[in-house]
Amino acid sequence: MTAFEYDVVVIGAGPVGENVADRVVQGGLTAAIVERELVGGECSYWACMPTKALLRSASALRAARQLPGAREAVTGRLDAAAVLGRRDSFASQWRDDGQVSWLESAGIALHRGQGRIRSARVVQVTGVDGVTVTLTARHAVVVATGSSALLPDIPGLREAAPWSSREAASAASVPRRLAIIGGGVVAAEMATAFGALGSSVTVLARDGVLPSAEPFAGELVTESLREAGVSVRLGANAVSVRRDDSGTVHVDTADGEQVEADEVLVAVGRIPNTQDVGLENVGLAPGVWLAVDDTLRVVGGGGWLYAAGDVNRRVLLTHQGKYQARAAGDVIVARARGEKVDDSQWGRHAVTADERAVPQVIFTDPEVASVGLTAAAAAAAGLRIRVVDYDLGSVAGSSLHADGYKGHARMVVDEDRKVIIGFTLAGPDVAELIHAATIAVVGEVPLDRLWHAVPAYPTVSEVWLRLLETYGR
Ligand SMILES: Cc1cc2nc3c(=O)[nH]c(=O)nc-3n(C[C@H](O)[C@H](O)[C@H](O)COP(=O)(O)OP(=O)(O)OC[C@H]3O[C@@H](n4cnc5c(N)ncnc54)[C@H](O)[C@@H]3O)c2cc1C
Ligand SMILES: NC(=O)c1ccc[n+]([C@@H]2O[C@H](COP(=O)([O-])OP(=O)(O)OC[C@H]3O[C@@H](n4cnc5c(N)ncnc54)[C@H](O)[C@@H]3O)[C@@H](O)[C@H]2O)c1
């Protein structure tokens, strides 16, 4: 059996694993990464990039249709084949050559195959040909194996060959009818995308649309999906599924309704990729989310085992996983060199923003961009808050941006500290606006000082001034 030794071994070459490895190499250590599918992970081939490519063309078309002059120039429909083609290129045709070259240029060794921890700091890699390689880590092993779609226990569902987000993101054609079970982020984005691409879409949103966001966001998205012809069934609970001999899928709901579709997409959350990583060999339970301390060390993992990204369930977002990767890489280097670990709040090796300041953009129509706590989450945390709302459509910049601009903004203020702890925008093209709020939340900028951050006229960002005026000086 071939054996190698590195300072750090990372299992999983998604965006998070790649960034951990890069960071430790930049810190002067050696690193190997183990990947069983494509280097680049879920985000590159079946999640962030292809789904946003599916959504972008429809968004540009909608924007043009909201403006007299531009509207008249747009005569055709969305070209679904062209959209799917652009999506294919953003998924790099499901080839990872580009990412492999990047690993090489970054000085990271790649071992292809299923990685399994055999004992403390020892990882065995089994390639598709069954050949095994043993990797020993001098300092740390990092599990960055990500997550997979959860398939709920609905009778008949598995046999009906449902789509997960993978099949939706990589669909070769647009189904005539698409049923979606779930109302979260994947469901809302895919309903927006496939509705625009020409599918007749039904969303079975048992727990509502975007239930974790501020309520106005889900309401605006539901209204707009319905206006676009999507059937959104709030509270509908799928209880059985059957695909008949003609290929049609029948989804029964608890209230006795039936939905017929050509494909059914299941989007009800994720499970961790920890079933087959060898956790049982080091006294940990397989198949569970890996709990970590503030420096990403696995609880009960002997001090050498780290977990970053989706697999630790802190935040299931690429950018936040990469933030964890930077902290994990740096802390592994610091510990290897015997340097001081700075795990104080907002310290170099702590992932404080995971709890306080996670930004997210949901690329629906309208877009939903948020950071920090919702009003409900802040109240549940026992904070003394004030919620400040403003109609985004009545800002001068918004009315210029699009005729009939409809949107809403909310700022959640911690009344004891007079700082913003949550901010949500729902409206056309708000995605690029959220970073200002992220800086205000992370920087804990006092409201008094924010009066001096003057938004340019006439931009949508003037909503900041309107929110401050509504709050009062
Ligand atoms: C449809 C969809 C859209 C999304 N859109 C966005 C978005 O717009 N923005 C955003 O920030 N986030 C988005 N996300 C979330 C984002 O995809 C994840 O947060 C991100 O991919 C997590 O990165 P990761 O590196 O932790 O895991 P992954 O990307 O899942 O990578 C893990 C890698 O580990 C490999 N692996 C697993 N087990 C083993 C093993 N035992 N041995 C070897 N290799 C292994 C896998 O093959 C995979 O390549 C989306 C998710 C979905 C499902
Ligand atoms: N733009 C983005 O940032 C983006 C896009 C897509 C996905 N993601 C990430 O991917 C992750 C997974 O997305 P997701 O939409 O699968 O999960 P989610 O957690 O966002 O939503 C799942 C929804 O399904 C509902 N649900 C659970 N069980 C159900 C059942 N049996 N029947 C009907 N509904 C049920 C839940 O109440 C929840 O609202 C998210 O955590 C998100 O962070 C991010």
UniProtKB/TrEMBL annotation:
Q: Which UniProt keywords apply?
A: FAD, Flavoprotein, NAD
Q: Pfam families annotated for this entry?
A: Pyr_redox_2, Pyr_redox_dim
List, for all copies, the residue spans of the domain called Pyridine nucleotide-disulphide oxidoreductase dimerisation: 358-464
Matching Gene3D superfamilies? 3.30.390.30, FAD/NAD(P)-binding domain
Tell me yes or no: is DNA damage among this UniProt entry's keywords: no
Record carries keyword NAD: yes
Residue stretches making up the FAD/NAD(P)-binding domain: 6-322
Signal peptide coordinates: none
Q: Which cofactor does it need?
A: FAD
Membership in a protein family = Belongs to the class-I pyridine nucleotide-disulfide oxidoreductase family.
Q: State the name under which the record lists this protein.
A: NAD(P)/FAD-dependent oxidoreductase
